Amino acid sequence: MSVGADGVAEDWGSPEEPNLLEAPVHELPEALTMPKPGECLICYLWRMQDFGCRGHEFTDRYVELRAPGATGLRRRLAGMGAVCCECEVFLNAYHPIHRQRLEDQAEDEWEYRMAETPDMPTCPGVRRGSTQPCGLWTRS
Q: What pTM, to 2 d.p., does this model score?
């Protein structure tokens, strides 16, 4: 609590919680943003969507930590339609393989919408240094 210029007490409340959607990647809690052991790039980017659209910051982080030899990755993603950001990976390049199966079976709009945002199983993993998707993903 503080006293304003007019002598009236002002309660500014507690300091704001940090806004994780606006914090730079290097300031986010490392435990939340580290690629899991063996996790593929696409599963990692799927998990990182919780932090909002950030261009290709998480792609760069993945390459730095798991696949430093993947120097052409951003160019490859751009060629698949992920030019501006990681959101475009899921709009233009990859979708969950079980979404396709659900779409094939969908009889109404509700089932199709549920297929659009499935709960993803745990990534089965890829070899270290790979930027290829695991078997949970297929090209759009």
A: 0.72
